[in-house]
Design a protein that fits this description.
about 240 residues, globular, binds 4,5,6,7-tetrafluoro-1,3-benzothiazole-2-sulfonamide, binds zinc ion
Length: about 240
């Protein structure tokens, strides 16, 4: 891969191969709740994951990704800032090496141990995920913070990964990994979910490299730091 999270290929160098890294709607951002404008026209988000069909789970060298069958509207997110339903394509995580750094979005400078991204695409307007991924209203990613605490969570359907409250912040942004397309309507839930240190340690056992490579690189700190807001408005649901 021509990018990573190390000293030679990390986020501060991505602009060399991906100039949009310095674009006007990059993600993640630091969310300031006090300056987020409450928008009463923002309705609740609706998640329909009941018939969700996961296909596989893989280590793609940057994260652990669970892919879903997206040939129809069986698993969609709609409502909130979205004008039509967006189909669930995959979910994946970002995390740190230890402690509470690891999330991509931060809230008043506060990081969480990890961040779950549920990636959806606008199949009403676009034929394929690839096409949607380059369109300004092509993707909707639901971000959920994971906070370390002593609890356990069972194997899951994404539905049970959700916190009790679906209150959210929303803003127009980008993919947080190359190609960094500015195609994402971000919906970040305010309430984190709890995961145990044991679960976090399982993430950290994943490798950036293949098992067979001699330099076993532990996968950790696979998060991009917050990017300039550049005049964007962050809106808050009620
Ligand atoms: N971290 S993210 O913004 O949710 C996110 N990045 C990417 C990405 F770079 C891709 F190439 C891709 F195919 C994705 F589906 C996502 S999803
Ligand atoms: Zn992500």
């Amino acid at each position: 891969h021509d990018w990573g999270y190390g000293v030679e290929d990390g986020p501060s160098l991505w602009h060399q191969n991906y100039p949009i890294a310095k674009g006007s709607r990059q993600s993640p951002i630091d969310i300031l709740p006090q300056t987020a404008s409450h928008d009463p026209s923002l309705g609740p988000i609706a998640l329909k994951y009941d018939q969700c069909t996961s296909i596989n789970i893989a280590n793609n060298g940057h994260s652990v990704v669970v892919e879903f069958e997206d040939s129809d509207d069986r698993s969609v997110i709609q409502g909130g800032p979205l004008d039509n339903p967006y189909r669930l394509k995959q979910f994946h995580f970002h995390w740190g090496g230890k402690g509470c750094r690891g999330s991509e979005h931060t809230v008043e400078g506060h990081s969480y141990a990890s961040e779950l991204h549920l990636v959806h695409w606008n199949a009403v307007k676009y034929e394929t995920f690839g096409e949607a991924a380059t369109a300004p209203d092509g993707l909707a990613v639901l971000g959920i913070f994971l906070e370390g605490s002593v609890t356990d969570f069972k194997s899951f359907n994404p539905k049970c990964l959700l916190p009790s409250s679906l209150h959210y912040w929303t803003y127009l942004g980008s993919l947080t990994t190359p190609p960094l397309h500015e195609s994402v309507t971000w919906i970040v839930l305010k309430e984190p979910i709890a995961v145990s240190e044991k679960q976090m340690s399982k993430f950290r056992m994943l490798l950036f490299t293949g098992e067979e490579e001699d330099q076993r690189m532990r996968m950790e700190n696979n998060f991009r730091p917050p990017q300039p807001l550049k005049g964007r408005k962050v809106r808050s649901s009620n």
